[in-house]
Amino acid sequence: MVEALSSHGPFTVFAPNEEAFKSLPAGTLNGLLADPQKLGSVLKYHVVSGKYNLGGVLSSLKMSKTMNVPTLQGEQVKISSVGLIKKYLRVNQANIVSTNIHASNGVINVIDKVIIPTKL
To answer: Quick one: pLDDT at residue 102?
Structure first.
């Protein structure tokens, strides 16, 4: 992960909040920590190339409501617009709860669930 994120980017990181980790099924976090390859896969699944700011993504989703974005892990995540009056974004089944935290090589969006790739 350090190697991947130390390049110039830009990147978008979908960072799970503390509650996201607490809501994982029992043993999942310890299992990932015991297997560096699986942990790396999960971490890379939370990172995409490019800078995805909330306003730009919502504008892009007006017509289609969803967009698939490839992650550094190799699989895609689905970013979708939810809500009729007050719109918010999701990444797979995780809600984006805090947006557009700018970093030197991209942006961080905080999510309320840890997203797990299908090929783990």
So the answer is: 87
